[in-house]
């Protein structure tokens, strides 16, 4: 089996992460892999923000500020502590470029593919990763706080670091459960 295929088949979301986070050449390599995503017309419709150290505390305050007015103290605290689940978070941001043949949605897909490559590269370098979205990824407050332009969107927050604990394998569906031939 090819090492790429093996890496894909062994990919796992890792919710329990600890220091160290990827740094130097490992981080640069993972980001370079993200830039190899399919990219019709070479628009490079993505960017990535790397958050670590005190930036995680600041990101937590930003997440907390996105809470609805009627949120409980416990809900606000949960939002504030979310970024502390990992020693590094990489925000994957779709930044579509106006183009007559490449719709913005396709460019968003390109960013998502890049984020998936990023996760695989982090795993290949010995790190764990967890792609998270949720209300904070869709929040205009968070988008503004991170400096996103009006046309940009958060595709996900890639939490990364060293895997803290092994977790049970997740059962995967058989190929016949989600694929078929057409015409039948």
From TrEMBL:
What this protein needs as a cofactor is: FMN
Q: Does the keyword Nucleotidyltransferase apply?
A: no
Q: Where is the signal peptide?
A: none
- Cite the InterPro entries for this sequence: NAD(P)H_nitroreductase, Nitroreductase, Nitroreductase-like, YdjA-like
Q: Which GO MF terms does the UniProt record name?
A: oxidoreductase activity
Could you say which EC number(s) this protein's record lists?
Answer: 1.-.-.-
Please verify whether the record's keywords include NAD. Answer: yes
The Nitroreductase domain covers 16-161
What CDD domains is this protein classified in? YdjA-like
Keywords associated with the record: Flavoprotein, FMN, NAD, NADP, Oxidoreductase
Give the note describing cofactor binding and stoichiometry: Binds 1 FMN per subunit.
> Which residues hold FMN?
11-13, 36, 40, 131-133
- Protein family membership: Belongs to the nitroreductase family.
PANTHER family recorded: NAD(P)H NITROREDUCTASE YDJA-RELATED (PTHR43821)
According to UniProt, the name of this protein is: Putative NAD(P)H nitroreductase
Q: Specify the species.
A: Marinobacter daqiaonensis
């Amino acid at each position: 089996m090819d090492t790429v295929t093996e890496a894909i088949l062994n990919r796992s979301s890792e919710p329990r992460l600890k220091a160290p986070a990827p740094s130097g050449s490992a981080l640069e390599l993972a980001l370079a892999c993200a830039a190899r995503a399919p990219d019709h017309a070479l628009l490079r419709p993505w960017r990535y923000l790397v958050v670590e150290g005190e930036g995680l505390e600041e990101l937590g305050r930003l997440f907390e500020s996105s809470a609805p007015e009627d949120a409980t103290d416990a809900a606000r605290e949960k939002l504030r502590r979310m970024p502390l689940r990992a020693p590094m978070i990489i925000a994957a941001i779709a930044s579509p470029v106006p183009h007559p043949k490449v719709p913005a949605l396709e460019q968003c897909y390109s960013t998502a593919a890049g984020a998936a490559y990023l996760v695989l590269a982090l795993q290949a370098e010995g790190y764990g990763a967890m792609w998270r979205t949720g209300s904070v990824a869709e929040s205009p407050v968070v988008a503004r706080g991170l400096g996103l332009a009006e046309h940009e969107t958060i595709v996900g927050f890639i939490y990364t670091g060293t895997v803290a604990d092994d977790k049970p394998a997740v059962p995967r569906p058989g190929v016949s459960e989600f694929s078929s031939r057409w015409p039948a």
